Amino acid sequence: MVGVGIGSLGIIAIISVFIGAAVTIQTAFQLINPIIPKNVVGSIARDSTILEFSPTISALVLAGRVGSSMASQIGTMRVTEQIDALEIMGVNAPGYLISPKIIAGVTMIPLLVIVSVLLGFTGGYIACSVSSEVTTSDFISGLSDGFNPVIVTVCLVKSLAFGFIITSICSYQGFYTSGGALEVGQAATRGVVYSCVMILFFDLIISRMFL
Amino acid sequence: MIEIKDIHKTFGENDVLKGISAVFKPGINNLIIGGSGSGKTTLLKCIVGLHEPTKGEVIFNGENFTQMNFEQRVPIRTHIGMLFQNSALFDSMSVEENIMFPLNLFTEMSKSEKLDRANFCLKRVNLEGKNKLFPSELSGGMKKRVGIARAISMQPKYLFVDEPNSGLDPKTSILIDDLINELTEEYKITTVIVTHDMNSVMGIGEHIIFLHNGEKWWEGSNHEIAHTDNKELNDFVFASKFMRAARAKL
Q: Is residue B236 scored above 90 in pLDDT?
């Protein structure tokens, strides 16, 4: 849990602040018009961040950071016979090695996504404060204007699903590695690629189901 | 005692083991020898349940291991210790934690009892005081000895050893062989060793099975091996000039 959660906090914080700022600046660039209220920029940045950028971009980054680490860790255990040693002792190796990782994924990734959303808003606020298109008060007013709680539900469902996808696919790829160092690397790559594809696929499915 | 009956193992089209039967008795060193690709490690993995035999039976003290499911095998597995070719110590755990790992899972011992047991096992393999080191800080011979300490921590009835001398210098190899031999005799363990190290064969091979192309080609002891007229076994055992010279002096 520490590895997945605390260990990923830095990278998630960096991408969230920058994406939040970039989304706000780009939305402002497209919507600055005398007939459109300026606080719309805040509303659009809020919805984009909560629905898409925080859960999906965070999950894609975490697939690379956490998923590859899990696949290579378990894969190395496989090729160095550590998993055989567990099985000889009568330990249910998949349960012992994979279950804690899935639990860590489905608990810590939603928490990271919540942090990412808040930092995305912070990034947007900073972008407004250093630019002249939208004021910070318009941005904050836009964040609460027309807020529909269902987007938070969608965000949390996505992050839960992505947490499961990353940890289960990468652990599976690592667990069924055979060979040596080359195959461990290939398993990690496969785990990340499959996770990313499944994240994007389930992003679409969940969005379609709830919205 | 372990009995194997007509063990076959096929990988795709490749018949790796072709009907091997043998009895491994307690208190002696049972060696499985053979050239590379002869099926030694596959046979060992079939015996311990890491591979399922395509055909045949493995019987531990009258209990048919091959017919059991995972849960039914657990009580037998708690009596099995295994030393792997590369020691297979858990990288993330210290020496002490590695040895205490099976005790944590399968015993009701208190923490101090487990620590006492770990210290006893470490003393037994001459590694007293190395409790807090991690596998990455150990030499090859030390890793093997920690592997042995972990294998004996549950006081096993069966000890399986895969290539105990691989990657070790001759002196350390003999130390490891002697240690396995002492433990086998002292605790009357049924020990099965896979090796192609001729020092081990001649030194501790009380019961030897020679595999050739997945078949049992010869069975006997280290005293008999020097006088056999089995061509394939002679080619294997006396492949080096040193061994041929040693036989000439017998």
A: no
Q: Which of B74, B86, B91 is nearest residue A90 as measured by Cβ atoms? A: B74
Residue ranges in B125-166 assigned as alpha helix (H): 140-152
Contact status, residue B135 vs residue B107, Cβ threshold 8 Å: no
Count of structural domains within chain A: 1
Across the interface, of B50, B90, B105, the residue whose CB is closest to A82 is B90
Q: Are strands B80-83 and B158-162 parallel, antiparallel or unpaired?
A: parallel
pTM attached to this predicted model: 0.85
Domain that holds residue A139: 6-210
DSSP-derived secondary structure letter, A57 = I
Report whether pLDDT(B249) > 70: no
The full set of domains in chain B, from first to last, is: 2-79+157-249 (3.40.50.300), 90-155 (no CATH)
- Does a structural domain hold residue A40? yes
- Binned at pLDDT 50, 70 and 90, residue A154 comes out as very high
Q: Chain-wide mean pLDDT for chain B?
A: 90
Residue A1 lies in a domain: no
* Cβ separation A85–B84 shorter than 8 A: yes
Does A87 reach chain B within 8 Å, measured CB to CB?
Answer: yes
Q: Is B208 helix (H, G, I), strand (E, B) or coil?
A: strand
Distance (Å) from the C-alpha of residue A184 to the closest C-alpha of chain B? 16
Which residues in A lie closer than 8 A to residue B160 (C-beta atoms)?
88
